Amino acid sequence: MPTKPTWTARASNVPEEACPIGPVVDIVFSRWTTPILWSLHEHGRQRFVELERRIGTITPKVLTQRLRQLERDGLIVRTYHPEVPPRVEYEISDLGRSLAPLFAHLATWASTNLDTVERSRHDYDAKSAR
Amino acid sequence: MPTKPTWTARASNVPEEACPIGPVVDIVFSRWTTPILWSLHEHGRQRFVELERRIGTITPKVLTQRLRQLERDGLIVRTYHPEVPPRVEYEISDLGRSLAPLFAHLATWASTNLDTVERSRHDYDAKSAR
DNA sequence: CAGTATCCGGCCGGATACTG
DNA sequence: CAGTATCCGGCCGGATACTG
Q1: What does the pLDDT read at residue B96?
Q2: Contacts A9 to B, Cβ<8 Å
Q3: Range of the domain at A78
């Protein structure tokens, strides 16, 4: 859980000025969580290696860390099948699924405004150059 | 711009499996951006020190970095008044303001589900302990 | 298969001091 | 006031090798 301590500290230091969405951002948008949740939501229940391959550039160590975090937060469910070789399946939970509209909202904002951001960056860099 | 290279790299390596909300997450939810945008949205145009005090635990160096990033992305507007002493004002842009519904959505999700996350964590930790 | 163990580099953010 | 310059520690994530 990457930046959580930061938010928590800030919230406790200056409670009245705390950004109300701080804690939830740490839960939902910490690193690798969106591709993992997205993959689980799109392609359903998956094994460890499937997720690993689908995400592409994540290492097993980090994937394990993120999956544990998401499981602890209740956003995914891990099922262990005691077979040989072992089989483990991950699926999105109801709580995780409840994020779908939010993600859709974000995707909509992106498709509408991402090119505006791009243009802004371009203009800013052009001005800085001269 | 903190984790951007990561997302970009992943997207270019495995385009077909890329999480579509990756890039926008880096823009909107990179560190300190939500409290800055929130403060600017709630309290209107503010000077550097006002923001610094309101956010509470951020250092000037980091605040400058984040403000520059947000300005470059077009989410805020910086106005420099050439006086002595200098006066600089920051305000949220139309593009930044367009994030308000999204933030509201996030706040709603948080108020509905944050205690579920808390309970899940508690249960998980209790199980791990034994 | 589904991870764990170790090592390691880079980067980010904090602290501190200074400036036009 | 609104920053910049420097230094520095910690942490996170990647690479690699290994295991029940």
Answers
A1: 98
A2: 57
A3: 15-98
The distance of B71 to chain A (nearest Cα, Å) reads 8
**Strand D at less than 7 A from CB of B60:** yes
Is pLDDT at A129 greater than 70 in this prediction?
Answer: yes
pLDDT band at B19 (very low <50, low <70, confident <90, very high): confident
Positive/negative CA dihedral, A89, A94, A96, A101: positive
Residue B123 inside a domain? The answer is no
- Scan residues 96-125 of chain A and list those with Cβ within 7 Å of strand D: none
C-beta atoms of A114 and B3 within 8 A = no
Number of domains in chain A: 1
In a domain, A72, yes or no: yes
Domain assignment of residue B35, yes or no: yes
CATH assignment of the domain containing A62: 1.10.10.10
d(CA B65, CA A25): 20
CB atoms within 10 A of CB B126: 9
